[in-house]
């Protein structure tokens, strides 16, 4: 990828943008703390609510929710501070909303940096970030008592790390990503490996980058296994986890259930058709890696019969690319205009 001579936001500008995004996120998630009880509609949220107020031991031994500790445990201190002081606001969902808003606002800011790095246009980058926040997945999957904001944040951090040639950060990111959600491991590794292969196709194979990918895989596996040992008291290996989550139905039936679920199309009904139009203006390795990681998520959803819920991890990896692509189509390359050169070469 050729560097584009762009001016990135300074610390003050970035702080102002992040603060605006945080307030937007809090507003999007506000109904979950006062207007309705998310636990009535989503059994997953009940588990995360329990993790904030209690511990993983309060959940059944065979549930993988008990190991997704990063977001609930970051919310715990806030919950202890505000309990009994929030009046009509639910203190647990308030705490989760604050932490989730931090991660989502940070992700939106990183999309601006990503858009500047790849396309060199602040208007496109800002529009892409706002489209990212406006997706239905935000109030439901990221801000309404769920924990997917952590996975989305660390996947974006990995994308920026390799685009800015900071591959040595990958092992550290593997630890935090694995604490956020176990699906981070296969999504990140598939993204990184396909990116490395696609980049190596036109360049010399860089074994040091491959070593960094292997290091992330190792640290993520160690984190997942150690976390399960601490919580459950015995060692559970990743392949055992995969087998435990295997559904009784066939992969084909699981795949059909994933792509026909209404929640899947609530998220992708406009994102996919519009986002695919201008992908040829983005770096090939970035596009191939994002698609490969999304297919990995779809396979996992078919494997464990995840239904439309698999759209959340798919959005985490595809959302930044597709929203920036739509923003580019709207601003720099509208469908109804004549030919215009992209700022990316």
Provide keyphrases for this structure:
single chain; disordered C terminus; mainly alpha; 69% helix; 345 residues; 17 helices
Short description:
This protein is mostly helical.
Polypeptide structure, described:
- It is a single chain.
- By secondary structure, the chain is an all-alpha fold.
- The protein has a domain of 230 residues.
- It has 17 helices and no strands.
- Helix 8 packs across helix 17 and helix 13 crosses helix 16.
- The termini are close together.
- The C terminus is likely disordered.
Secondary-structure map:
Elements: H1 11-29, H2 31-34, H3 43-53, H4 70-82, H5 91-119, H6 122-134, H7 137-142, H8 148-163, H9 170-180, H10 184-202, H11 207-232, H12 238-244, H13 251-260, H14 262-268, H15 271-275, H16 284-304, H17 311-331
Helix pairs in contact: 1-5, 3-4, 4-5, 5-6, 5-8, 6-17, 8-9, 8-10, 8-17, 9-11, 10-11, 10-16, 13-16, 16-17
Q: What amount of the residues lies in strands?
A: under 5%
Shape field: globular
Topology as a string of helices (H) and strands (E): HHHHHHHHHHHHHHHHH
Radius of gyration: 20 Å
- Roughly how many Å apart are the termini? 8 Å
In which range does the helix fraction lie? Answer: 55-70%
Count the E strands: 0
Structural class, judged by helices and strands? mainly alpha
Task: Calculate the mean pLDDT score and round it.
Answer: 86
Number of helices: 17
Q: What does the largest sheet look like?
A: none
| Poorly predicted runs of 5 or more residues | 338-345
